[in-house]
Amino acid sequence: DFRHVDDLDVQTYLTDLNKQDLARTSIARKISSLRSFYRYLTRIDVVKRNPFELVELKKQHHHLPQFFYEAEIQELFKTVAGKTPLDQRNRALLEVLYGTGIRVSECAKLTLNQVDFNTALLLIHGKGNKDRYVPFGQYAQQALRTYLKDGRQVLMAKSQAQHRYVFVNQYGRPITSRGIEYILDQLIKQTTLTANIHPHMLRHSFATHMLDHGADLRTVQELLGHASLSTTQIYTHVTMAHLKNEYMKYYPKHN
């Protein structure tokens, strides 16, 4: 009976939620809803007290985003120096992901009409149906032109269904986010790098390197499509950690 929930019931409920391996945000939403519900019940005198009023979740530990150092990026790009259709696709894929910082899911959904070579801008359909324009530089432009002119044509010839997605798999079908992740995994295995690559690592590298080279935090926020500046600020911690590491490595008194 919801009218007789006590502190022990709440503790049991929290334990059960934690066993389900739910995200902290999901648990927080559930607790918030129940707290509001019981606040209403106390107001209309259905219950005498709110058992969820004093429930506090442990603070979340924020892990710094993993990224590639610039020398590691160069080594990664050496794996796509070939001229086969898949090499051309992979080169364009790396150049776009690293050169724009767009999400893997945004890259997978990119269509031909979202690419404007005249203005060197990509129209990105981001989270929450929010559109933004992201510039893509000389290297990404060149890689994309080559791929769209040659490699993509060859791959599309293998597909019976025509479509306008930029990036395709070996059968000419639209690539998926999981497919991009698989490609990145295979490329990293061709290097001497020991990093376990994850889908957003190139995005993290883009943001970190932009800030390292003096980009304004607001600019990086807009390019990444973050709704809140606080989300982007995590990358300032990454660059500070990087700077401290370099200082400890090279400052004479620490050698």
Can you tell me about this structure?
The protein folds into two domains: 1-61, no CATH class; 70-248, hpI Integrase, Chain A (Orthogonal Bundle). It has a three-stranded antiparallel β-sheet with strand order 1-2-3, with no helix packed on it. By secondary structure, the chain is mainly α. The protein is 53% helix and 5% strand. The longest helix is centred in the last third of the chain and has 22 residues, at 229-250. It is built from ten helices and three strands. It has helices spanning 7-19, 24-43, 70-77, 85-100, 104-108, 138-156, 177-189, 201-212, 217-224, 229-250; strands at residues 115-116, 121-125, 131-135. The model has no long low-confidence stretch (mean pLDDT 87). Helix 4 packs antiparallel against helix 6 (138-156) and helix 8 (201-212) crosses helix 10.
